[in-house]
Amino acid sequence: MIIKGRVIKFGDNIDTDVIIPARFLSFTDEKILGSHAFEDYSPSFREMVKSHPIIVAGKNFGCGSSREHAVLALKGAGVKVVVAESFARIFFRNAINLGLPPLEVEGVGREIDDGDLLEIDLENSIVRDKTKDKTFKTGRLPDFILSILKAGGMANYIREHKGEW
């Protein structure tokens, strides 16, 4: 699975309330949530993500509450992958369960800039910054996690494999 695109960059400790403000938590439709992603923090995000579908961030991305709404908002806005130095554990698991690849890369917050063009190879755990001609190794996602991501999330994975157990 190869993902290509330009970067929108965020810093450390981006919490779920920043990703999707609490006033929108009554919605569960990812398109509606996506239309409000980063609304208070980065008003230009929703327009920029149309041409920059990759988020790169520092440490502790997705901290805060355990709500799945944050992942749904990112997907609904058009984010294809989040690459960060580290993730809050519940966000990491929610991202996998909902089919949004979360990749941890040490130092990525310092090395990759807004607008850089990336090529991400999930199977081989490689992030290539085509703008700077740099390659980064990610933490390897186990095959069963890759299968869930390829299916578009846990619910789709279960539907596809129903009856195999």
Describe the structure.
The chain has helices spanning 16-19, 30-34, 45-48, 69-77, 89-98, 108-111, 143-151, 154-161, and strands at residues 2-9, 54-57, 81-84, 102-104, 117-121, 126-129, 134-137. With 165 residues, the protein is an alpha/beta fold. It has one domain (2-161): Alpha-Beta Barrel (Aconitase, domain 4). Strands 4-3-2-1-5-6-7 form a 7-stranded mixed β-sheet. Helix 5 (89-98) links the parallel strand 3 (81-84) and strand 4 (102-104).
- CATH class (first level) name: Alpha Beta
The CATH homologous superfamily name equals Aconitase, domain 4
Based on DSSP secondary structure assignment, what is the total number of beta strands?
A: 7
Q: What level of helicity do the residues show?
A: 25-40%
**The number of domains:** 1
Gap from first CA to last CA: 26 Å
Q: Going across the biggest sheet, name each strand in turn.
A: 4-3-2-1-5-6-7
Strand content: 15-25%
How many H/I helical runs? 8
What is the CATH architecture assignment? Answer: Alpha-Beta Barrel
The radius of gyration is 15 Å
Unreliable spans = none
Mean pLDDT across every amino acid position? 95
Largest sheet: 7 strands, mixed
CATH fold label: Aconitase, domain 4
The coarse silhouette is: globular
Q: How would you classify the helix and strand content by structural class?
A: alpha/beta
* H-E string: EHHHEHEHEHEEEHH
